[in-house]
From TrEMBL, chain A:
Stated name of the protein: Potassium-transporting ATPase potassium-binding subunit
Membrane topology according to the record: Multi-pass membrane protein
Family according to the record: Belongs to the KdpA family.
Keyword flag Membrane: yes
Lineage of the species this protein comes from: Bacteria, Pseudomonadati, Pseudomonadota, Alphaproteobacteria, Hyphomicrobiales
HAMAP family: KdpA (MF_00275)
UniProtKB/TrEMBL annotation, chain B:
Chain's role: Part of the high-affinity ATP-driven potassium transport (or Kdp) system, which catalyzes the hydrolysis of ATP coupled with the electrogenic transport of potassium into the cytoplasm. This subunit is responsible for energy coupling to the transport system and for the release of the potassium ions to the cytoplasm.
Chain sites annotated for binding ATP: D343, E347, F376, S377, A378, A379, T380, R381, L382, S383, K394
PROSITE patterns given in the database record: ATPASE_E1_E2 (PS00154), COF_2 (PS01229)
Protein name per UniProt: Potassium-transporting ATPase ATP-binding subunit
Ranges annotated as spanning the membrane: 34-52, 67-85, 218-245, 251-275, 589-612, 618-644, 656-681
UniProt family annotation: Belongs to the cation transport ATPase (P-type) (TC 3.A.3) family. Type IA subfamily.
């Protein structure tokens, strides 16, 4: 590890927080329907959308109405994308003449983009027409991100309101999230990426003559427009197969820094918006400090593990000071690769600028664990915030009684109904990740897709199901996932991880919004300050650790201890 | 505090019965109420079946046999914890049943004949019975006066300590149970049957069979079920994952892993904690109508406290002698003592105490011979003494003026000092008591409410815990403000009508606060019902008792503060043991995980941080620790975690350190010690 490496990491994080604060203030205005900086320009557009869709933004929905609207909206999005992918061979903007996708791949891909996962069982430049990329995938990049933001805002409203029945209007929230937040950020940062060298064209490819005099075909397309929103909306689905490791998606260390910034900024801003919407910024600071603490710890462990390298490299005569550079781009180096890996998994983004499967076992365990901890550090846009609030509810319930009051969070009593729903939601992660992994570990049809044997093979399985259930989308590498078994089960894992989590979460919102908001006193369990932050971090680690420690012991931990003994797989 | 001493945790007769009950509770149908222990019992059965199979097949038995035994012990220990808590609760309730038949009513066989008294327990009175109530008696129940006139101290109902006149006929004919007749006599027709079902309800709350889970207990059970499911998934999926790794694990060992991970500690102690909380209430002579009320009392933000009896002593006391011109305070005090020597009222006694303490006046043992004591009567509103040479009276100012005029036989000019003192005392919120001898004014005795000496610290304590105190009084705002500032309450309601109380409670609740109050009058009923915690006095009216959710058998309004403490301690105990239970799992993983896989992946020995001797010993030690910790924590579950009145942040820091950090560290040490013993005895 080097000072410059850490400096890089800290400067990017500081730049995120510096922009996220005003963005959070702006978002809190947007979602309260207040006048904001962009109202003069976008107000008329918003009104015309509302008019066209026949939506009255003043007419709010109950939690159930909100959840049903969300489900219907996403079901429609899935259906349209699925049909588009199946039929892409018959449709225009297909200069390479790609055929339609197979049913299981189309299912997997449509689910993947609707759920904000962006798991890619396909190679973009060899599978997708420009139309599929632009009208299919990019559209869902916006809408799945807007859905996440809307849901988080609905839950925050449930905490902010007292004795109310409604949590907002889903369609209005989606329109506002897209129009005021995602679109402007994507346009501005997309243009910045074009300036840094990312292509934006409808041409299929360019043919160039290499230095050796050979001929090379370079795949091109509307790259910048998709990868801007892929990061802003923490989708992570790259235009090219190798994602942000590709020189056109991520040409330079500067564009790499911008890409990391893009991933983080909306999720962090949402936490600030949360503080404003509930009228208590200290609560947001507590949540944010937990996210920052664990994320930076993750970056630190990954960076340390990669910088330490492996004894095998050293015994092969390589300079141990170089660390483990396998699977990493030389233009980014160890620090930026480790940071990218931790951020993209802490965030449920899923873009990669290095191959996580090539990390040391411990370094590769970091992104895996960050997903297993629930995609809340800081988590995908919206999903991270509502996931974190759910864990905060559980934390308050476990420890809150210790101050001699029945548990309450942000002035709302946490009772049997909330616990039931929170448990339903957090059960999804171990059920899908461990359940599918255990079956795949003994199923020949699944095992044939593995790239490696031994504990590393097990890590490939864990990572795939974690990535799908956590709606992350990044791949460990090594796994050939485009087969009916993997496409189908990963698709199911993505659906479970998204919607089976959201519905109980919205039920909690419905229950909380109806409760009176209690006034805090000196006797109230304090949910701000370092004590609560430490407690929340502890519960996240213990809860996640308890679920996955046995599995990890057989996977990356076994691989690490065996690697130290010189054994590889 | 009228708390009875706690029964010692492991009294021999209680232990005997609890042990029997622990086996009875093995019935799975009953055990389903406690899901974590239910799961433990199911897997214990599975291991038993495997053990029997091993016996038949002639396989080695030692390891599986021990695992099986300790799993059953885990279930039995949990059952024992519940049984012993129930036993203690039952013992308290039984002693309560004997103690409560205290008030004796003078029932009249013939309603017109005052000599036909047949004493009877107040609780056995029926509607329509006629009772005689004489000076100093408690009115045994709500009723209607059919004959007589008397002054009645209704402080227990109204909070106002000055006696009021009650008489047959008209709108002042109702008397309230628990009020005291301070002069004269009444014949009362009982109009409300004293309820006695509270006790039965209370017994139901401490006995397992009928015990309903309280709301927070229910929510906590859901969390525990969730944790159990999570570990069930983790353990079941481990079969597939370990098969892949070539490290297949036997079923008894997987079950051992499951049982050590699921929250058996809190799962086993949860109902014992709840029962013990109820038991603690009973020991304070408080009956709760529901477990919910006890939990709510821990949540209280605002306490509405009656002034009289809680903040001040029930009666007003003499605090100053103001003599008329030409007379010293000592001389006046001597006259006042003369008039009060045989006065049994609290005011009268307080005059003697003041005279002795202030002026060192020696109090004779008996009144002077030939003295005739005139007790206070509602009609004259005077009391005093008739001596051979003189007549002394003390009483209300109007009555004294009348007495002076009548004794002198003409208008007597009132001394200026007398008039001024009366005005000053009234302005300050006190009660002026006139003193006269024969036909002349002697002086004014200042009677005032005296704030209890330790109450200010109690309120400061409550404030630290974030609880606001509000004084409720029938006094005028001037008096109320004076006492409020002296006692250090946060707010007060003066000239409080029942409607005022109700409005105050509603307003607090609108601002998101939970309110507790105590009361006993029928007109308190709406406020008692509206309050989140309403404590009715046992001496109160039936309506009040039905509106509240707790009854205080001692009818001591100060109890409210203790009740809040009991509620908080109950919740703290629950939370602390939950945290402890979950924190324990960290060490158990480090004991069991390396033991599971070490054969297939020897390098995993680095996770064996405790240096446990063998894989079998590691697993067995974790299981034994898991069972023994339940027994070790029974005393804590029953007595509750140490409770101090501190703010939430301090309490949290302290409890987190003890039960969170302690919960992580203790099992590392405990499992290691057990491992040493197990390997020393060659058990595994």
């Amino acid at each position: 590890m080097t000072v410059v490496g850490w400096l890089q990491i800290l400067v990017i994080l500081a730049a995120v927080v510096a922009f996220a604060m005003p963005l959070g203030a702006f978002m809190s205005k947007v979602f309260q329907g207040e006048r904001n900086v962009l109202t003069p320009v976008l107000g008329p557009v918003e009104r015309s959308f509302h008019r066209l869709a026949g939506i009255d933004p003043g007419k709010e929905q109950s939690w159930l109405g909100y959840a049903l609207a969300m489900l219907a909206f996403n079901a429609a999005g899935f259906l349209i994308l699925y049909l588009l992918l199946r039929a892409q061979g018959l449709l225009p903007f297909n200069p390479q003449g790609f055929a339609g996708l197979s049913p299981d791949l189309a299912f997997n891909t449509a689910v993947s983009f609707v759920t904000n996962t962006n798991w890619q069982a396909y190679g973009g430049e060899t599978t997708m027409s420009h139309l599929s990329q632009m009208a299919g995938l990019t559209v869902q990049n916006f809408l799945s991100a807007a859905t996440g933001i809307a849901l988080a805002v609905a839950l925050v409203r449930a905490f902010a309101r007292s004795g109310a029945q409604t949590v907002g209007n889903f369609f209005t929230d989606v329109i506002r999230a897209t129009l005021y937040v995602l679109l402007p950020l994507a346009v501005v940062t997309g243009l910045a990426q074009v300036a840094m060298g990312t292509p934006q064209t409808l041409e299929a490819s360019a043919t160039v003559e290499t230095l050796e005099g050979g001929e090379q075909t370079l795949a091109l397309g509307p790259v910048a427009s998709q990868i801007a929103i892929k990061q802003i909306g923490t989708n992570g689905g790259g235009f090219f197969n190798v994602n942000a490791a590709h020189p056109y998606e991520n040409p330079s260390p500067l564009s790499n820094a911008l890409t990391i910034w893009q991933m983080l900024v909306v999720s962090i801003a949402l936490v600030f918006a949360f503080g404003r919407l509930i009228g208590d910024k200290r609560q947001a600071v507590a949540i944010l400090s937990v996210m920052a603490l664990l994320l930076v710890a993750g970056i630190g462990v990954a960076y340390w593990a990669e910088a330490a390298g492996t004894p095998i490299l050293a015994s092969a005569g390589l300079d141990p000071a170089g660390g483990n550079m396998e699977g990493k781009e030389v233009r980014f180096g160890l620090a930026a690769s480790a940071m990218f890996a931790a951020v993209t998994t802490g965030l449920s983004d899923g873009a990669v600028n290095s191959m996580h499967g090539s990390f040391t076992p411990l370094g590769g365990m970091v992104p895996m664990v960050l997903i297993m901890l629930g995609e809340i550090l800081p988590g995908g846009v919206g999903a991270g915030l509502y996931g974190m609030l759910l864990i905060a509810i559980i934390t308050v319930f476990v420890a809150g009684l210790m101050v001699g009051r029945t548990p309450e969070y942000l002035g709302k009593k946490i009772e049997a109904k909330e616990m039931k729903m929170a448990i339903l939601a957090i059960l999804i992660l171990p059920t899908a990740i461990l359940g599918f992994s255990a079956v795949s570990a003994v199923l020949p049809a699944a095992l044939s897709g593995l790239g490696n044997a031994g504990p590393h093979g097990l890590s490939e399985i864990y990572y795939a199901y974690s990535s799908a259930t956590g709606n992350n989308g990044s791949a460990f590498g090594g796994l050939a996932a485009n087969s009916p078994w993997w496409n189908t089960t990963l698709g199911l894992a993505m659906l479970l991880g998204r919607f089976a989590y959201i519905v109980p979460m919205m039920a909690i919102a419905g229950s909380l919004v109806a409760k009176p908001k209690l006034a805090p006193s000196a006797g109230t369990f304090p949910t701000h300050g370092p004590l609560f932050a430490g407690l929340l971090a502890g519960i996240i680690l213990i809860l996640g650790g308890l679920q996955f420690f046995p599995a990890l012991a057989l996977g990356p931990i076994a691989e690490q201890v065996q690697m130290l003994g010189g054994k590889t797989f | 505090m009228a708390a009875k001493a706690a029964t010692s945790t492991f009294q021999p007769d209680l232990v005997g019965r609890a042990t029997v009950d622990a086996f009875k509770k093995l019935n799975p149908a009953a055990l389903m109420r406690s899901p974590v222990i239910f799961v433990t019992e199911i897997v214990a059965m599975v291991v038993t079946i495997l053990f029997v199979r091993d016996v038949v097949a002639g396989n080695p038995l030692l390891f599986t046999g021990q695992i099986m035994a300790w799993l059953w012990f885990t279930v039995l220990f949990a059952n024992f914890a519940e049984a012993i808590a129930e036993g203690r609760g039952r013992a308290q309730a039984a002693s309560l049943r004997q103690a409560r038949t205290d008030t004796v009513a003078k029932r009249l066989a013939d309603r017109t004949d005052r000599s036909s008294v047949r004493p009877i327990s107040a609780l056995d009175l029926k509607i329509g019975d006629h009772v005689l109530v004489e000076t100093g008696d408690l009115v045994p129940g709500d009723g209607e006066i059919v004959e007589g006139i008397a002054s009645v101290n209704e402080a227990a109902v109204t909070g106002e300590s000055a006696p009021v006149i009650r008489e047959a006929g008209g709108d002042r004919s109702a008397v309230t149970g628990g009020t005291t007749v301070v002069s004269d006599w009444l014949i009362v027709r009982i109009t409300a049957a004293p309820g006695s079902s509270f006790l039965d309800r209370m017994i139901a709350l401490v006995e397992g069979a009928e015990r309903q889970k309280t709301p927070n207990e229910l929510a906590l059970t859901i969390l525990l079920v969730g944790m159990t499911l999570i570990f069930l998934i983790a353990v079941v999926t481990l079969t597939g994952l370990s098969a892949y790794a070539g490290a297949a694990v036997s079923v008894p060992i997987l079950i051992a892993l499951l049982v050590t991970l699921i929250p058996t500690t809190i799962g086993g102690l949860l109902s014992a904690i709840g029962i013990a909380g109820m038991d603690r209430l009973i020991r304070h002579n408080v009956l709760a109508m529901s477990g919910k009320a006890v939990e709510a009392s821990g949540d209280v933000d605002t306490l509405l406290l009656d002034k009289t009896g809680t903040i001040t002593f029930g009666n007003r006391m003499a605090s100053e002698f103001v003599a008329v011109e030409g007379m010293s305070a000592v001389e006046m005090a001597e006259i006042a003592v003369e008039a009060s020597l045989a006065d049994e009222t609290a005011e009268g006694r307080s005059i003697l105490v003041l005279a002795r303490d202030r002026f060192g006046i020696a109090l004779p043992d008996a009144p002077r011979p030939g003295a005739t004591f005139i007790p206070f009567s509602a009609a004259t509103r005077l009391s005093g003494v008739d001596l051979t040479s003189k007549t002394i009276r003390k009483g209300s100012i109007d009555a004294i003026r009348k007495f002076v005029r009548e004794t002198a036989g003409h208008e007597v000019a009132e001394p200026r000092a007398f008039t001024q003192a009366v005005e000053r005392i009234a302005r300050s919120g006190g009660t002026p008591l006139g003193l006269a001898e024969n036909g002349r004014f002697i002086g004014v005795i200042h009677l005032k409410d005296v704030v209890k000496p330790d109450i200010k610290e109690r309120f400061a304590e409550l404030r630290r815990m974030g609880i606001r105190t509000v004084m409720v009084t029938g006094d005028n705002p001037v008096t109320a403000a004076a006492i409020a500032s002296e006692a250090g309450v946060d707010d007060f309601i003066a000239e409080a009508t029942p409607q005022d109380k109700l409005n105050y409670i509603r307003n607090e609740q609108r601002q998101g606060r939970l309110v507790a109050m105590c009361g006993d009058g029928t007109n308190d009923a709406p406020a008692l019902a509206q309050a989140d915690v309403g404590v009715a006095m046992q001496t109160g009216t039936q309506a009040a008792r039905e509106a509240g959710n707790m009854v205080d058998l001692d009818s001591d309004p100060t109890k409210l503060i203790e009740i809040v403490g009991i509620g908080k301690q109950l919740l703290m105990t629950r939370g602390s043991l939950t945290t402890f239970s979950i924190a324990n799992d960290v060490a158990k993983y480090f004991a069991i995980i390396p033991a599971l896989f070490i054969a297939a992946i020897p390098e995993l020995d680095v996770l064996n941080v405790m240096g446990l001797s063998t894989p079998e010993s590691a697993i067995l030690s974790a299981v034994i620790f898991n069972a023994l910790v339940i027994v070790a924590l029974i005393p804590l579950a029953l007595t509750g975690v140490p409770y101090r009145a501190l703010d939430a942040a301090t309490v949290l820091r302290r409890n987190l350190l003890v039960y969170g950090l302690g919960g992580i560290l203790v099992p590392f040490i405990g499992i290691k010690l057990i491992d040493v013993v197990v390997s020393f005895l060659s058990l595994a």
